[in-house]
Write a structure and sequence with these properties.
Layout lengths: L3 E7 H10 L1 H4 L4 E8 L1 H4 L2 H11 L4 E5 L13 H6 L3 E4 L3 H10 L4 E8 L4 H13 L5 E7 L2 H9 L8 E4 L1 H7 L2 H10 L2 E4 L4 H17 L4 E3 L11 H10 E8 L3 E10 L8 H4 L15 H5 L23 H4 L4 H9 L1
Parallel strand pairs: 1-2, 1-7, 3-4, 3-5, 5-6, 7-8, 8-9
Antiparallel strand pairs: 10-11
Helix pairs in contact: 1-16, 7-12, 8-10
Length: 336
């Protein structure tokens, strides 16, 4: 039996698959590999360094999601920078960051935005509100990314060689299934959008295997209780109103054209890159950490010499071990 290799794009899928022991239920000829669907993991060291540079400035309050606190840049992490006196706060939504700005009018409050199409529309909505209310001390450091350019890069890679994608359910709630159709057709990759329960994932794998065997390179929605073909037009519209695509660096994948989001000129007064004149420095790759190869689906955590030894969830070396959706963190917690 020829091996069928499927990539789960989303970090939440990776965690669910390993936690539920799904790989142990599959025959040996079905291989699952992880993809670049963890927004924390794919944030480059250069982008983290830029955020830390801003956080170190006087009268700045940096806000971010909890997963970002321990992600290492080349000069340290948010957690280490906070211990040295910088005001860095964990928030649970961008609305919390806006509230902090209102409560601290003498400070410049920055929200470090990471995430895919799931997160960025909510940030766009809050920026519209901040602009309407003329809140002057609030800005966004946009490290948002678009998943489809990354999927095209992987689908077209001779290095990775996968047969199909287990597509992310929550991103697809926003985008719908239509953007996957061009990828499926052009690169001959089967695509199935699934939910996050073990039953959803197993059904998605079954549908993908059938499509690969039949050479039916289309798109199927298994997660029909939440995903529609055209997605959420309202969220798509607010995203387009506030942001515009740009080329950005992905950890492991390099710079991908039109795969990130920057604020449109209409919202330039909320652009932390412009306000703080951000300059991204070149950094040296950490020796030993293979997070980049794992994000491309080329290697697995067990292939890393640091995994479970020098690199653990208590003492992470790379972002794949830091994030709650990181592949290494999933394998470390549940893979044994």
């Amino acid at each position: 039996m020829n091996t069928i290799k499927l990539m789960e794009v989303c970090g939440t899928h990776t965690m669910a698959i390993v936690r539920a022991g799904i790989k142990k239920l599959l025959p040996a000829w079905i291989e699952l590999v992880s993809g670049p669907g963890c927004p924390v993991c794919v944030t480059s060291e250069r982008d983290i360094d830029a955020a830390i540079d801003i956080a170190r400035q006087k009268d700045v309050i940096m806000t971010t999601f909890g997963d970002m606190m321990r992600v290492p840049g080349s000069t340290g992490s948010f957690e280490e920078t906070k211990q040295k006196g910088s005001d860095i706060r964990i928030v649970y939504s961008v609305l919390d960051a806006l509230r902090i700005a209102e409560e601290n009018p003498k400070h410049k409050v920055v929200f470090m935005g990471v995430g895919f199409e799931t997160t960025s529309p909510t940030v766009a909505s809050v920026l519209k509100e901040a602009r309407a209310r003329k809140i002057k001390n609030f800005s966004i450091l946009s490290n948002f990314k678009l998943i489809f350019p990354a999927l095209r890069t992987i689908a077209g890679s001779r290095e990775v060689q996968i047969d199909g994608f287990i597509c992310p359910g929550h991103v697809s709630v926003i985008t719908g299934s239509v953007p996957y159709e061009k990828i499926a057709k052009r690169y001959k990759k089967a695509c199935v959008i699934t939910g996050f329960e073990p039953g959803d994932i197993l059904k998605g794998i079954e549908k993908l295997v059938r499509r690969v065997r039949d050479k039916n390179y289309g798109v199927e929605i298994e997660y029909a209780r939440a995903v529609r073909k055209k997605g959420n037009p309202t969220a798509q519209d607010v995203l387009k109103e506030v942001f515009t695509p740009r080329g950005v660096e992905w950890r492991g994948l390099g710079v991908i054209k039109k795969s990130g989001l920057k604020l449109r000129n209409k919202y330039k007064d909320f652009d932390a890159e412009r306000i703080f004149k951000v300059k991204r420095r070149s950094v040296l790759k950490k020796k030993g950490c293979i997070c980049g190869e794992i994000l491309k689906g080329l290697k697995k955590p067990a292939d890393c010499k640091l995994f479970g030894k020098a690199c653990t969830t208590r003492h992470p070396v790379g972002p794949c071990m830091v994030s709650s959706e990181g592949t290494c963190a999933a394998y470390y917690r549940y893979g044994k």
